[in-house]
Amino acid sequence: MPELAKSEFWKDIPAIPNCFKPDAKPEVYISNAPTEDEKLYVPFTETVSSRPLWISPTENRWCDILMAKSAGLVNRHYHPHEVFAYTISGKWGYLEHDWTATAGDFVYETPGEGHTLVAYEHEEPMRAFFIVKGPLIWLDEKGETEGIFDVHDYIAMCREHYEKVGIGAAYVDTLFR
């Protein structure tokens, strides 16, 4: 139950009884998602880390906070599906585009886009909330495929990191929906 209302007009409205349908899974609630606790961020590349927030192995989708504490790079990649991003702090962009995202900016990436994600030097770490559907297809400098990274690779990477830092590999399973 959330905190009790004091003066809000809806304070006497009761919660819906039995709000979940029989086969519904519980929500994921994560307080302070863009936390400073670096143990929760899984190294994605040498300069960029990811904090998983929600993972759907059956839909090949995940949501995360991508973070770079200084200049960072996520390898060149291609998306066969759409991606959504919301910038929390810092500054980032794609070498292939003419915009630079800062706090409060929203980005919709259309299916069929290849790009090179970079984080800029900034007084605040780059933190962006991403919703990723489908695999990332790693590209070489000519834009040719050199590998594939999907939700199962992401899960394995997260499990390995969380086991290594003492959180435990099973933590990732709590994010599955």
UniProtKB/TrEMBL annotation:
User: Which keywords annotate this record?
Assistant: Dioxygenase, Oxidoreductase
Enumerate the spans annotated as ChrR-like cupin domain. 38-124
Can the keyword Oxidoreductase be found in this entry's annotation?
A: yes
Entry superkingdom: Bacteria
In terms of Gene3D superfamilies, this protein maps to:
Jelly Rolls (2.60.120.10)
The protein depicted here goes by the name: 2,4'-dihydroxyacetophenone dioxygenase
The molecular function terms in GO held by this entry are:
dioxygenase activity
Instruction: Output the InterPro entries linked to this UniProt entry.
Output: ChrR-like_cupin_dom, RmlC-like_jellyroll, RmlC_Cupin_sf
